[in-house]
UniProtKB/TrEMBL annotation:
Heme binds at C449. Signal peptide: none annotated. Keywords: Heme, Iron, Metal-binding, Monooxygenase, Oxidoreductase. It comes from Ephemerocybe angulata. Belongs to the cytochrome P450 family. Its cofactor is heme. The lineage of its organism: Eukaryota, Fungi, Dikarya, Basidiomycota, Agaricomycotina. It holds the Pfam family p450. It comes from the Eukaryota. InterPro entries: Cyt_P450, Cyt_P450_CS, Cyt_P450_E_grp-IV, Cyt_P450_sf. The keyword Oxidoreductase applies. This is Cytochrome P450. One of its GO terms (molecular function) is iron ion binding.
Amino acid sequence: MPTLTEALASVVISYILYKYIEFYRIRSKIDSIPTVGSDSFVGAYINSWRYFINGRSFVKEGYYKYPGAAFKVPTLGTSTGWQIIISGKAMIDELRKAPLEAMTLAEANVDTLQTDIIITKHSRVNEFQTDVVRTPLTRALAGRFGDIREEIIEASKIYLPVGDDWEALPRAHGALLHIVCRTANRLFVGLPLCRDPEYLKIQEDWTVHLFMDSLIIHAMPSILKPVVGRAMSKVDSLMKRVQTFLEATILERMEKDAKYGPDWEGKPADLISWLLDYAPPENRTVEDITVRVMFVNAAAVHTTTMGITNVLFELAARQEYIKPIREEISEVVRTHGWTKEAMLRLHKLDSFIKESFRLSGMGNTAGSRKTYKDFTFSNGVTIPKGYSIAIASGAIHFDPAIYPDPDTFNGWRFCETEDADGAKTEQWRNQVVTMDPTWLMWGVGRHACPGRFFAVNEIKAMVCHILSTYDIKLPGDATVPPAGTWFGNGRIPDSEAQILFRKRRSE
Ligand code: HEM
């Protein structure tokens, strides 16, 4: 009879042996793609943690070693344990055009976020909410700009200090998160729900739970994932709670649709109406619409918050930009009022935001996809079925051949050109929302971010309100913005960093 210790030891040894055989089986299918760092069983495991902490250096190394080609890095964030990364115009273009039957973002998300375990039946669904964001939500931005601006102003009164003297806003990132979440939900679900503290807290928190839970599930032995992973996740109960907030509204809208047809008088122009308009019959349920409202919040809230936080850190650190941007705002608003049209004409601010996005980044890679079948690029690189692929966006955004002097912040990089004699001409090129193979903030192709127009309008409207109402600076008059933290492929702004505010005195 083996002792308990012997029995446990044999379970552990069998598990390691199984992982060892599995590792080489999975790797053998992508052996032709070079690895950054070690690709041995132990070396790759160590590197997957190093990639989690400092993925940027891996992507940069691969980008310069294998230009226009593919390389792979070990990662904790996919079920194969590998992330294949590509660069070069031709490969990016082929990924952009890859058919949905070959690879999708949704499948990459199912894998990275372990949604089959965490949100089970809602994991692999018809993604009509993407069409809703792309079309009716984006079209409504002009008509609902007044509401968006009003919510920014009202939320700022609560979350931003407004004394005559400098006052620190501790954890600026957290305060901005509340403003962004309220503003987004003014558009998504309207008043009064967009100001309900419990509803907002869930919308702010649930995405964080999803990310953290998925990381823990990736680290578990496969056999435990479905039961332990599911049991520990709070996401299901949060979804049920949001359903109680939305149920009466969704039912009332469905009733009115049934009674008066789809265009009844007084129908609110919000996410709930648009989702019901776009939902196939089998998806017109309270539960399904609730889940979509949560998915859109997940896509919209933390991304936009990171964007505006980085922009404000840069502005507070680089005081010399504040005056020209304020002048531009006054001039444009004098002609166009507080409208979406005005936001479109803020060229200097647009360039500043784009440069802030480029330098502070948010992701190290973009255009994540997982393959449903083998996919071969025209240069002969094959991505086998079931593997994850992405573009080396972080390295591309710092490539000196594309962005001269890439490590230097130049807020006018995208709104000025310099001739051979160094004379500068104002010329607006490449807005922040415009995509191309060298500007990958929004991903690529059919999965490219459909919410980018809303995100940029919201960020511009927030900057306009803040610069018109307050002076801002960093503690100690620092001229370098707070550094962010990298986790795997993402960069999170310093959540402890402060911004100082006072009632506007300067021009
Ligand atoms: C600064 C803010 C934002 C950033 C940086 C951002 C970035 C991205 C990126 C990189 C993707 C994946 C693209 C790809 O894989 O090719 C994406 C997808 C998506 N984003 Fe955004 N996003 C932002 C804000 C928003 C907002 C405000 C919304 C909604 C109103 C939104 C809705 C979506 C949706 C629905 C998708 C999925 C598209 C699909 O599956 O085809 N995003 N976003």
